[in-house]
Amino acid sequence: xILRLAIASLLNRRLTAGLTxxxxxxxxxxxxxxxxxxxxxxxxxxxxVSGTDLIVGARTSPVHLLLFSVFRIGNPTNTMRWESxxxxxxxxxxxxxxxxxxxxxxxxxxxxxxxxxxxxxYRYASGRSLVFAQGxxxxxxxxxxxxxxxARRLGYSVGSKVVLAHGAGDVSFALHDERxxxxxxxxxxxGTPVDRAVHVPLGGLDALHASTLGTDDxxxxxxxxxxxxxxxxxxxxxxxxxxVLVGLHKRGQALGLQRAVNEFDGEALTAILPGATLMEVxxxxxxxxxxxxxxxxxxxxxxxxxxxxxxLTGLAERRREMAVLRSVGARPSHVxxxxxxxAAMLTAAGIVAGAGTLQVLVASGRDWLERQLGLxxxxxxxxxxxxxxxxxxxAAGTIIGLVPAWRIYRQSLADGMIVRL
Length: 421
Known about the structure:
16% strand; single chain; two-stranded antiparallel sheet; 421 residues; alpha+beta
């Protein structure tokens, strides 16, 4: 009976009720969107590298080493010698290594000098390996493999030529146009920084720099010979590296090897555990996460406050309606329950509309988000945490309905019958 009366009352005031539902729906959609983007970003960040037990680089802060070697954020401030990498490979605990050399770019995309082990050993998203969408790995010193986003945005395919530039900026005037690289393969999308990288052989990258240095070298003949030798042999023995990804035979050996690297006498090195350092990164980003969540909760509070204002404003117009209900036998508790039921229904309708709006927006804009912002957001079913948030909003809306319900409960039958001028 109360439920039917509440539905009839809301339909009779459909414009006001509709606007109230709209404000709550937008608030809930924003809250859920922030929560989903936060969770997806955290998952995507954690899935960028998998199966790597240690990352080794020149002496620097652990967070800096993780950011530039895995997420391509920032630049290495120092390099480690190739001899240190060879010492690392000779360690009995080490199963494989992936050498990385950074510092160049192509039209704003980072260039990663590496070896063929990169395509065999690199893992992301809980153990997924890299897959070629076109072509294959390097076979010559002047070959290049593109990430999926680089190929799609710049319109490259296998056989195209790319010219690298010195530095990591979007614009560079130091082009290595004397030695273009031929694209030998394009990787399938991974949703990680790999999609936004150009991979070239270490030998080709070293030959490129040797050639450039040769123009200013005191012995241009020696520089030219060094460049020619590196280009011909595809040598993977450059003078220095930016970082090395390390896989171990047993994960339990990571702490021992980390200590050995940090105490290495031959060179000042830093070894980090990717998982532990990632937690440090999240502690830094936690402040921004909490601020974003606080803003979305304030938006929800504004939406619920709008519902409270609409209900309180409608009380004056509904005095006679309530008096008629009381005159036909409705008790104050019935009127109280009616107001509470209306508030709960408005909140529930807003939550359903907001959740539906979010699903539609994510499903229709998912490709755009991934293409323009590199943000992967799934339109799957709601997580347990998201359902908890919706239940929390529903409870808050019902509690807010107690205010107008209490006010109408205290009104006597005569209050509605008196004509106020």
